[in-house]
Amino acid sequence: MSKFSYAVQLAQKLVRCPSVTPEEAGTLDLLEDELKQIGFICTRLFFGDGKDRIRNLYAEYGDGPSHFAFAGHVDVVPVGRSTDWNFPPFQAEIKDGYLYGRGSADMKSGIAAFISAIRNWQQSSKAKTKISLIITGDEEADAINGTTKIVEWMKINRIYPDMCVVAEPTSQIEIGDNIRNGRRGSLSGKLIVNGIQGHVAYPHLAQNPTFPLMKMLSFVSSTELDVGNSYFGPSTAEVTGLSTSSQTSNVIPKSASAMFNIRFNTEHSKESLQGWLEEHFRKIAGDFNVEFEVEWKSNALPFVTEAGKLTELLSDSIMSKTGRNPELSTIGGTSDARFIKQLCPVAEFGLVGKTMHQIDENVSINDIDVLTNIYEDMLHRFDKKNEY
Ligand SMILES: [Zn+2]
């Protein structure tokens, strides 16, 4: 008999599968075995072709009509140089109360906690609540053949949960201090300005694209996009790359290019930002008599789940199991919650994420058990709210 809880042991088994994105490395077989034992019906969903083919799992238990969903990803980011690790990244070693390994925080232990919570809940609940699990192997990379496709599949099959919790490690310092109820959107631009190449000693025969490019960029990075709103801080823009076609210092380049990224809140849409920037780029290009092109890429739109049923349920469970009053926040990068928002209210809550993606990623095993208790408590409260 291991001295560790079911959740901690399952987290260890998951960490031992080297599921560096987009591999699932046996994690889905493992989860399917565990879930079938407690009455789940499992459906494997494959999206994409060839080497882009991604394996996902949708699992469902109970009849409803009320329906609670959990979501998570089994893929992890690469380990970097494994010799830099003090704890081998896929060994799932436990030392001094911490479980070490790639994916321990982000987010295999979160998945282990919600499965453990469901097992405990099943033993003490007579409710028929439908529980579903949305598990993807494609969150850390392109997120093209993962949750977004599962959500499409759920829509076609008319599967609409009442609410969903994503087990991302949202806690900042102590478990329970932070719930994520929205995320900013992301818009990337590649801006290319074309002038006329020439000798630096004869600038009147050339058209230098670097100065207009700098003018355009200073507009990108110095403009206050907004002051934020009740759910979000101000949107931010960062220039991330610069280059010109010139290799030497005595040639005025033909073209100069830059990359930038905007993290934007719900005060903007990607169309409004693009239109506004392109208008200014056009004006500057006109003033300097140069041409420009801009390539836009956006893989995430901002979303927010307004404070309400779901955030109250989560906050009440967190308070009852930890005594902490979680802050609602929308900080951080993008997450798969943005896709689930199309189905139902969604919030993210999980373990302390401060070591995620780092060398010697780790998580407190006590926190895994606390998280299990919070998730179980939440399911009981959900039953009650639905008047069984
Ligand atoms: Zn994650």
Produce a short descriptive summary.
This protein has helices spanning 6-15, 27-37, 104-124, 147-156, 210-222, 270-288, 309-322, 337-340, 365-385, and strands spanning 41-47, 54-61, 67-73, 94-95, 98-100, 130-136, 163-166, 178-180, 182-183, 185-194, 198-199, 236-244, 251-252, 255-264, 291-300, 303-304, 327-329, 346-348, 362-364. The chain is α+β, with helices and mostly antiparallel strands and 388 residues long.
Tags for this model:
388 residues; binds zinc ion; six-stranded mixed β-sheet; Alpha-Beta Plaits; alpha+beta; four-stranded antiparallel β-sheet
| Mean pLDDT level | 95
Q: Which fold name is given in CATH as the topology of the largest domain?
A: Aminopeptidase
Question: How many alpha or pi helices?
Answer: 9
Following the backbone from N to C, one meets helices and strands in this order, namely HHEEEEEHEHEEEEEHEEEHEEHEHEEH
